[in-house]
């Protein structure tokens, strides 16, 4: 445990040193406050609208940002150490590969979690202070769920980054693969699902399609954040399928946790198999 | 006393390719051993096995009485890799503190080691600003964290100036006297010759020879070179003299069979030379002999 903490400490202080945490927190704060007040500007409405609408907008934004930031934060976690010449030295220490990876995961996870809390949390504070008559209990529960699920989504993609970093032989390859993973889950997956829906012309069992959403952690994340709000999942592209998904909020959280467990396990396996 | 490192018929395969063939040698406590060989001879693989970075395919390998993968064993091993690299964004002090935490070494030792390698003044500079020699010295300090019982150094003098090189050798002697066992891989053979207790020469994944310099010389049977001054023109004849050549400034060199060297020296002294030097085969001579005998390396170091 001491070794895991030592590695986590180094990763976290690196995150502070190179201002990753500051940059992510500021980015989240600016975007979150902007969305809370100007999210409905397209419909001619300026100012805070409602908590469900704000969370829905923030979740859409975080679906794009969290995976990208997590992948950028950790794509070089292993391959970068090897290219930098420090991986072999580290592995001669009383430190197992599993401890090294877990330590990195904790360190990167702390950066991601704290940035999310500070960035998005500042929007929640701003709403609580500046918006009159807002339901504080609804605000708190919605933002707690949003911040926790955003962090969890980030952790899943951190785990993806470790898989790529453990398998790539060069940093540039890992970076390319990371962008590919982001592209696949954030942009392509939903489009592909909609295409299947249209092209199949009802040949695919309608009961099956909502379950396919669970194959994408980003979709599970959106479902978690839309659940609990009235008509939350309606009229949002592929998310409209979610209405037919016979799953509660707890099951969705579990699905995201399973994603994290599976990908993190894969990362450990990939790193264990890596020659170096 | 049990061996610090013991290899018994150790083999290593990478797929179908065998890189180590039945390697057997041991390192005793307080010994300095030179591990030599041409590029691709199997030195790096051997070191990686000892460090527990890879598992051997066959034979028996014990490090400090156990398995190298064991964290408690690794705690007692120090390693200085060739061209050691560190995190450029950290200072020398932070680097050493990070590795000290991983090794379970004290922060007081960090300060002491920085002073020992002459980096106290530069300890708050980022490593990216360090010269190669400074990085190497930081690497040495890193390897000494936790007072290892086994120290492995791969080309430790690369980037060091002559004074730093000499202090490294002196440090090696000090550590040996304190009971630390050292394995040193180097191509700078004249530098390490007088500091090693034992040499292991590898070629093409095979162990060519292992032993102290006397044993290696006896086994090789290479001629001893006697350099003599002030006997020019005089007859020197002995059946053990293989060749006689003239050098500069009145010096001559005789290549003499090793078993008769004292006899020839006695004969030369009777002729009252101005000077006389006895030069047994150097480590470099022995290395070349064993490596070439194995047919592994040509003049330019290209594998044949």
Automatic annotation (TrEMBL), chain A:
Keywords: Membrane, Transmembrane, Transmembrane helix. The chain crosses the membrane at residues 20-39, 51-75, 105-131, 143-164, 176-200, 251-271. GO terms for cellular component: plasma membrane. One of its GO terms (molecular function) is ABC-type transporter activity. It comes from the Bacteria. This is Cu-processing system permease protein.
UniProtKB/TrEMBL annotation, chain B:
InterPro entries: AAA+_ATPase, ABC_transporter-like_ATP-bd, ABC_transporter-like_CS, ABC_Transporter_VariousFunc, P-loop_NTPase. This is Cu-processing system ATP-binding protein. It comes from the Bacteria. It comes from Thiopseudomonas denitrificans. Residues 5-229 form the ABC transporter domain. The keyword Ubl conjugation does not apply. One of its GO terms (molecular function) is ATP binding. Keywords: ATP-binding, Nucleotide-binding, Transport. Coiled coil: none annotated. CDD domains: ABC_DR_subfamily_A (cd03230). Pfam families: ABC_tran.
């Amino acid at each position: 445990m001491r070794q895991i903490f030592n590695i986590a400490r180094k990763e976290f202080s690196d995150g502070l040193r190179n201002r990753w945490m500051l940059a992510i927190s500021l980015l989240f704060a600016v975007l979150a406050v902007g969305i809370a007040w100007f999210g409905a500007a397209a419909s001619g409405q300026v100012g805070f609208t409602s908590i469900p609408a704000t969370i829905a907008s923030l979740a859409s934004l975080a679906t794009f940002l969290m995976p990208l930031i997590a992948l950028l934060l950790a794509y070089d976690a292993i391959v970068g150490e090897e290219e930098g010449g420090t991986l072999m030295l580290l592995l001669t220490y009383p430190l197992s590969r599993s401890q090294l990876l877990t330590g990195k995961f904790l360190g990167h996870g702390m950066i991601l979690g704290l940035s999310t809390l500070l960035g998005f949390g500042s929007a929640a504070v701003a709403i609580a202070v500046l918006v009159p008559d807002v339901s504080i209990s609804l605000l708190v529960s919605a933002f707690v769920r949003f911040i926790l699920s955003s962090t969890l989504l980030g952790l899943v993609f951190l785990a993806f980054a470790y898989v790529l970093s453990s398998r790539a032989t060069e940093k540039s390859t890992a970076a390319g693969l990371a962008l590919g993973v982001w592209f696949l889950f954030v942009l392509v997956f939903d489009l592909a699902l909609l295409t299947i829906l249209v092209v199949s012309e009802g040949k695919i069992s309608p009961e099956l399609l909502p379950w396919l959403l669970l194959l994408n952690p980003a979709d599970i994340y959106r479902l978690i954040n839309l659940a609990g709000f009235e008509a939350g999942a309606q009229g949002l592209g592929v998310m409209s399928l979610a209405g037919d998904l016979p799953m509660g909020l707890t099951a969705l959280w579990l699905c995201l946790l399973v994603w994290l467990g599976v990908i993190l396990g894969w990362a450990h396996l990939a790193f264990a198999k890596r020659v170096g | 006393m049990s061996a610090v490192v013991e290899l018994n018929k150790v083999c290593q395969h990478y797929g179908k390719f065998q890189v180590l063939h039945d390697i057997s040698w041991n390192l005793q406590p307080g010994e300095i051993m030179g591990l030599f060989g041409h590029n691709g001879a199997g030195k790096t693989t051997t070191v990686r096995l000892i460090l527990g970075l890879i598992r051997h395919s066959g034979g028996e390998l014990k490090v400090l009485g156990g398995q190298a993968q064991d964290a408690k064993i690794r705690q007692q091993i120090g390693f200085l890799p060739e061209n050691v690299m560190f995190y450029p964004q950290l200072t020398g002090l932070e680097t050493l503190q990070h590795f000290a935490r991983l090794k379970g070494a004290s922060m007081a030792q960090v300060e002491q080691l920085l002073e020992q390698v002459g980096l106290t003044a530069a300890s708050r500079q980022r490593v990216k600003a360090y010269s190669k020699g400074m990085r190497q010295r930081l690497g040495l300090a890193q390897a000494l964290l936790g007072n290892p019982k086994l120290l492995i150094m791969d080309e430790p003098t690369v980037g060091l100036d002559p004074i730093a090189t000499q202090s490294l050798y002196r440090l090696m002697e000090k550590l040996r006297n304190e009971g630390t066992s050292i394995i040193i891989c180097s191509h700078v053979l004249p530098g390490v010759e007088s500091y090693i207790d034992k040499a292991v020469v590898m070629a093409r994944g095979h162990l060519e020879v292992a032993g102290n310099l006397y044993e290696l010389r006896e086994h090789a049977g290479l001629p001893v070179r006697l350099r003599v001054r002030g006997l020019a023109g005089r007859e020197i004849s002995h059946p053990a003299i293989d060749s006689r050549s003239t050098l500069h400034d009145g010096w001559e060199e005789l290549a003499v069979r090793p078993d008769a060297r004292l006899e020839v020296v006695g004969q030369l002294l009777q002729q009252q030379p101005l000077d006389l030097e006895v030069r047994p085969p150097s480590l470099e001579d022995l290395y070349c002999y064993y490596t070439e005998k194995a047919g592994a390396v040509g003049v330019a170091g290209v594998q044949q």
